Amino acid sequence: MSADRSTMLARAARMRREPTEAERLLWRQLRASQLNGYKFRRQATTGGRIVDFFCPAKGLAIEVDGDTHEAQSDAGRDKALRADRGFGSLRFGNREVIENLDGVLEAIVLTLDSLPERWDRSTTPDPSSKEEGSERRPSPL
What we know:
The chain is of the alpha+beta class. It has helices spanning 5-17, 21-30, 71-85, 94-99, 101-114, 130-134, and strands at 41-46, 49-55, 60-65, 88-93. The protein has a single domain, classed as Endonuclease, Chain A (3-Layer(aba) Sandwich). Strand 2 (49-55) and strand 3 (60-65) form a beta hairpin.
């Protein structure tokens, strides 16, 4: 049984406040669209689970795993995320992030660059008509 949305959001907030050292190191490189312009969210809720990092433009979850993770159950969760949401995932161990951050970042960029865009990041939609774009609505106050 999965937790309700408010419980998941509270867990994600706690995880953002208390990251592992590996998560902290990786977030320093991913935050503020520093990695080739890709935007990431950290401790994002999706599909009834919390992923360490998520790139919405590419639908890619990145997990940083400690020693307690089990490869078989992680693979099952990754497969479910792909089937339920269409999102891919990459996994790295804490030690790998700490000892080989450049290699981890390179693997992330290679994967991101190989994935199709989920939407066009370079444009914003135009109003459907000239009137809509210039219409001023009274303030509700």
